Amino acid sequence: MSIIGRILKRPEVLFAPIVIVFVVVFIIPFISTIYYSLTDRDALIPDKSKYVGLANYEKTIQDNMFWNSIIRGAVYSIVSAGFQTFIGLVFALLLQSRMPGRALMKIAVLLPYFIPTIVVATLWRYLFDDSYGLINLILLKLNIISDKIAWLANPSTSLLSAIVMGTWEFMPFAFIIFLAALSRIPLDIYYAAMVDGASRWRCFWDMTLPYLKKTIVLVFFFRAIWMFNKFDVIWLLTKGGPLHSSEHLPIYIYINAFFRYQFGLGSCMAMITFIMLVVLSAAYMSILKPEPTQKKL
Fold first, then answer.
1. Topology annotation, domain 63-285
2. C-alpha–C-alpha distance, residues 118 and 121, integer Å
3. What is the structure's pLDDT at 296?
């Protein structure tokens, strides 16, 4: 074997492409963000930036808009993750049974997850339109509302509209996880319970739910963390408006960095977001950690 062949088969060489991609895509941008967060870098005049220490962090902590964007992001992520978890569980329970057309219904439930977000946003902007939107038309026909609602132009309904769109698009993820978890539950316990006269509700409450308890918590945490950091859903639907009513943290960072050209301040907010997500991810991993098993003596 040639010298080049032996070199190419070394583990370090085989791992080199992955390491290079990781350094270029993650390490360098991460270090750059830390550096920029300690400067007053302006995107319009980058050559005149200077080191300001923790001034950006102090300014961010004193910014009421920053904290309001965190609150809106928390509401958006928690409520959206809750709906995704609940609806995904309901669909998984319904489609687990051997009902006619089950395969077709599974495809229908999974379909939103495979549609690009830009297409989903365009669809929901049409559905929420106050002039010809289908949602207003249905609610008026059912006499639920007496007049058309400007869902995306009203500060009291814009965030709710984003929650509805996010739930519809990402609920299939929870559905897939719950369907897989349900398939692992042994059917023998159900047969034994039904022989003893247990109802379907009692079987669900005493057997299915305990089996799925940890999965439910994990799905909720994962979706909440993911939705908190999700930029495109709200941006494509409302762009954070009107009057900042749906402006959560990723959009607020984007506006500061690329619209107000305060790159240093935007980098500082991004670092704070990173720290928050690390804490949430640590909580998620602690839940995911398997319980220690006791050794038999």
1. MetI-like fold (1.10.3720)
2. 5
3. 45
